[in-house]
């Protein structure tokens, strides 16, 4: 593993209780490992506030604020308005994470859709990009993003799990994709196929930590320090070296989130 790789983690959860015992040490160690920036994603109003608090503490950490599909029962126009109030904060770079989750299916689908649409509209209104969680809800997710006319460069499918065919529709719209540890899994044939058709300028790297640790660390607590395993895998798929993959995906991330170099 090239120790000199520099990488941007476009989707992390360093506010998760899995980091309660060693959060500061962990953040210092991933910084030392080559992390140049990370976006911690909120899942509801309270967790969005926590992401912002962490971003205020570390110059290289940023925050996304929004309501996750599994928390969609918390959606109300009032609650969304509170989240809107966070969007002016200088470290808030996106709306999210939001979307549809038909795998857990804990929240009625019409409630999930109403929440997703409200989050998208907040992104459109504020000019921020939206971080999309799509789990086994590919068609509805795509339909809603299309119907809401989300512009090119303003949405990312995080931990992309759709087909190569669906990827082509997303590419046509100019939306982005991020890949994490799941790309390295043995059964990741579909994700590998999708990644192979996506142009490099639409790709970003992520962890979704503490979840989704890549092979060979699958099942352990994930951190941004494991991103090089994903970069290596993407490099292999694209016929590039990991450093080039990091350079391009870092540029993409800075541009997507509107972060000045
Ligand atoms: Ni997440």
Q: What's the gyration radius in Å?
A: 17 Å
Overall average residue pLDDT: 97
Total helical elements: 9
Q: Tell me, what's the shape?
A: globular
- String of helices and strands: EHEHEHEHEHEHEHEHH
| Number of β-strand runs | 8
**SS class:** alpha/beta
CATH class: Alpha Beta
Attribute tags:
single chain; 261 residues; alpha/beta; TIM Barrel; eight-stranded parallel β-sheet; 17% strand
Question: What order do the helices and strands come in, and which of them pair?
Answer:
Layout: E1 7-12, H1 23-32, E2 35-41, H2 45-57, E3 61-65, H3 77-84, E4 92-101, H4 109-126, E5 130-135, H5 138-147, E6 155-158, H6 164-173, E7 176-179, H7 189-197, E8 203-205, H8 227-238, H9 242-257
Parallel strand pairs: 1-2, 2-3, 3-4, 4-5, 5-6, 6-7, 7-8
Helix pairs in contact: 6-7, 8-9
The structure holds nickel (II) ion (NI).
Describe this structure in words.
With 261 residues, this protein is of the alpha/beta class. The chain has a single domain (7-257), classed as Alpha-Beta Barrel (TIM Barrel). It contains nine helices and eight strands. It has helices spanning 23-32, 45-57, 77-84, 109-126, 138-147, 164-173, 189-197, 227-238, 242-257, and strands at residues 7-12, 35-41, 61-65, 92-101, 130-135, 155-158, 176-179, 203-205. Strands 1-2-3-4-5-6-7-8 form an eight-stranded parallel β-sheet. α6 (164-173) packs parallel to α7 (189-197). It is globular. Bound molecules: nickel (II) ion (NI). Nickel (II) ion binds at residues 11, 13, 41, 97, 208.
């Amino acid at each position: 593993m090239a120790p000199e790789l520099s990488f941007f983690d476009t989707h992390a959860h360093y506010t998760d209780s899995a980091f309660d015992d060693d959060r500061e040490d962990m953040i210092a160690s991933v910084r030392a490992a080559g992390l140049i920036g990370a976006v911690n994603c909120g899942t509801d109003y309270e967790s969005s506030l926590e992401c912002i608090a962490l971003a205020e503490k570390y110059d290289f950490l940023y925050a996304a604020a929004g309501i996750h599909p599994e928390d969609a029962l918390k959606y109300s126009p009032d609650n969304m308005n509170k989240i809107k109030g966070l969007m002016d904060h200088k470290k808030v770079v996106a709306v999210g994470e939001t979307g549809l989750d038909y795998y857990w299916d804990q929240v009625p689908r019409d409630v999930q859709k109403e929440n997703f649409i409200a989050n998208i509209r907040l992104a459109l209104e504020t000019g921020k990009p939206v971080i999309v969680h799509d789990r086994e809800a590919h068609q509805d997710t795509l339909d809603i993003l299309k119907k809401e006319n989300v512009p090119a460069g303003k949405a990312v499918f995080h931990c992309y799990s759709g087909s190569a065919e669906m990827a082509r529709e997303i590419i046509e719209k100019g939306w982005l994709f991020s890949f994490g540890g799941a790309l390295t899994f043995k059964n990741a044939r579909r994700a590998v196929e999708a990644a192979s058709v996506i142009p490099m300028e639409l790709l970003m790297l992520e962890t979704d930590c503490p979840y989704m640790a890549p092979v060979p660390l699958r099942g352990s607590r994930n951190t941004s320090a494991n991103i090089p395993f994903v970069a290596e895998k993407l490099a292999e798929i694209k016929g590039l070296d990991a450093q080039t993959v990091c350079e391009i995906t870092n540029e993409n991330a800075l541009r997507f989130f509107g972060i000045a170099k």
